[in-house]
Amino acid sequence: MDLHDFYYELPRELIAQDPLEDRSGSRLLVLNRSTGETEHHIFREIREYLRPGDCLVVNDTKVIPARLIGSREGTGAKIEVLLLKRRADDVWETLVKPGKKARPGVRLCFGDGLLRGEVLEVVEEGNRLIRFTYEGIFEEILDRLGQMPLPPYITHQLKDRNRYQTVYAKHDGSAAAPTAGLHFTPELLDEIRKKGVQIAHVTLHVGLGTFRPVKVEAIEDHHMHSEFYVVEEEQARIINETRAGGGRIIAVGTTSCRTLESAADEDGVLRAGSGWTDIFIYPGYEFRLTDCLITNFHLPESTLLMLVSALAGRERILKAYEAAVKERYRFFSFGDAMFII
Q: Most exposed residue of 69, 84, 137, 288, measured as fewest CB within 10 angstroms of its CB?
């Protein structure tokens, strides 16, 4: 398939710049993937589409304040570092701007020397390995100096860091939020449980590979960057029992979906464990475990748009997106949601 097959027109003013004050007050487009029919709701009304015996699968990763602004030692030139993944205790794979100034051996300074770094080597996609030195606890220093790594299409400063975290975020490690989960409140989750719906947790630490633009015309030639995931024994049991009992497995977000599909065997049985996944889901893929998907609206020609197209069909997805544009839905990370059933 060609990259342009996943293009659609989006007015710039529909890109949401700020989260709504009420998380569950976002709009919800429900897409029936069998018929292509769409319905329009408020997100909290999603409970009306959930059935006793279903299982929501959420990604409980927590976004770290991974954006660091510092300077090069010696020249004082400004430099920006985005932490992507921890390679060793104090060695991180990073994205550095400007990259040309970050050659191996270059030393960096953050927070008047509270945190220092040395560029070790240049790796895939021009990313840099940096070894950090500091006194104290790295996570505490990062919390003090770092900023939330918002996507480049969001130009507003985020007033409250917690609005770029899900209410169930638990395990530090992501460079971006699993944004479909941002719509849930503790109260809505309680209502869903009371309806007889299980809520299972998996962890996938979101890297920027998920969001990198596809640069090849034939999408089959695109390679995803690997991301670390964990499926605990108890959570695998809940999900497998739901499936055995005839309930639906509903992935909350593309990251939960990718975790499920990576850890499931050919018979659709979820295996507990951890590892790295570079799974790329696009039309033609046969889903092993995911029945339904709660997701936000994704960028044109993105791997995320390809994933939802694999589940619901490209033409139906693009038609639903066309309806969302016409109805003035809010798009991307802080935008509205879609429920593919």
A: 137
